[in-house]
Amino acid sequence: MQKKQKNILKQLQELDKIQNDEIDYSDSDDLSKLDFQNFDFFENKKQQITLRIDNDILDFFKKMGKGYQTKINQVLREYKKQKHHI
């Protein structure tokens, strides 16, 4: 194991020894005000499907570059939110 890796491992082991009540959170933001639904780790797991999309729509998103499928998902999620409020 390289010296840097050993150092990181040692630091992680030291962090594991700290109890939650020993941590000073006074300079942290109030997490209760955050909208946790916007965090990726709270989203539903993704399911692979086959979806037929018009070429011009697909080209529009692909021109945005890497992550175009995620952008399509975000647009569909926003549409869902709008419809849910009706």
Count of DSSP helices?
Answer: 3
SSE string, helices as H and strands as E: HHH
* Proportion in helices: 40-55%
- Biggest sheet record: none
Rg value? 21 Å
Which blocks of ≥5 consecutive residues have pLDDT under 50?
A: none
Task: Characterise the protein shown here.
With 86 residues, the chain is mostly helical. It has a domain at 40-86. The chain is built from three helices and no strands. The longest helix is centred in the C-terminal third of the chain and has 17 residues, at 68-84. The protein is elongated, with a radius of gyration of 21 Å. The N and C termini lie far apart (58 Å).
Summarize the structure.
With 86 residues, the chain is mainly α. The protein has helices spanning 3-16, 55-62, 68-84.
Topology readout:
Blueprint: H1 3-16, H2 55-62, H3 68-84
